[in-house]
Amino acid sequence: MNLLITGANGFIGKALTSRLLRNDAEPLAGLNRVERLTLIDLGFEGPEDPRVRRLHGSIADASLLARAFDAPVDVLFHLASIPGGMAEQHYELARQVNLDATLNLLEAARAQTLASSKPVTVVFASSIAVLGAPLPARVDDATPLRPRLTYGAHKLIGEILMEDFSRRGWIDARSIRLPGIVARPPQRTGQLSAFLSDIFRDLAAGRTFACPVSADSTTWLMSIHRVVHNLLHAAAMPSAACRETRVWTLPALRTSMTQLVAAIAEAYGSDVLTRVTYESNPALEANFGRYPPLSTPAADAAGFTHDGDLAALVRRALLPTA
Q1: Strands 209-211 and 276-278
Q2: Cα–Cα distance between 173 and 316 in angstroms, integer?
Q3: pLDDT in tens, 254-300
Q4: What's residue 286's pLDDT?
Q5: What is the pLDDT, as a whole number, of residue 319?
Q6: Quick check: is 268 catalytic?
Q7: d(CA 23, CA 31)
Q8: Global pTM value
Q9: Region for 248 from its dihedrals, namely left if φ exceeds 0, alpha if ψ lies in -120 to 50, beta otherwise
Q10: Phi, psi of 176 (to 5 degrees)
Q11: Alpha carbon of 155 to those of 160, 175, 216, 249: distances in Å?
């Protein structure tokens, strides 16, 4: 298979790439052996692999997209984006990457389909940011979408484009809304929810942690390992499984910060409990600390899964690869 990943040097992209390159030793159900893997990002880290072609640059560069599609692409994982806080601060850049480049990417996939008659399978990494805030008392598949951040609005537009291009037979898209993913590396990516990853690293390393939301605040979390599993599951799903919907809010573990800290203490020692303080930031809490119970029957029926329990999530959160 010939696979293409945008945002390939990001947190999710690197984990997905690592898993795909292990396919010979650990075959992936529904996906054939990876023969060529094209990665797009501004820069790359890590060793080379003969199956991998690295394209340095922005997906907003039309010439770069032309090179990415110079051979037929079987599956496209579209992960690249300008996330929450950065999108709020840099509107032009966010529009260029999240909207203009996404549309150009879909046009490239459309051109391939029109030339070959076989639509490209596109897995689009959307976000729970499309739901907005404040959330209702319970979130399910019928919850209205009211994004309150530019990033969420862009993701919702992306979902609509995926649906429309699929309706016309130009692509075969599957959009999955990702929850908070842990534990992200300590990098300035513009993620307003970065504290949800910092808490794992700091407490595991024996450091103190000033939590910027209250102890009883709640959130939805998923380990990077489970995210990769769900991305691959989306790619391997037969087209018939997308007849009812092409968008799924992923199941996630709902936890309070107190419960999360207790689970980290179970794994890293009871002194963890003494190294956490809570200093609520109202804006952060409004967006990332008031998540209600979550029901995802469509995703459950389609075979998407969460980590199972907090112990498993904590155990996986700091593992080096997915």
Answers
A1: parallel
A2: 29
A3: 999 999 999 999 999 999 999 999 998 998 888 889 999 999 999 99
A4: 86
A5: 82
A6: no
A7: 9
A8: 0.94
A9: beta
A10: -125, 130
A11: 9, 10, 29, 13
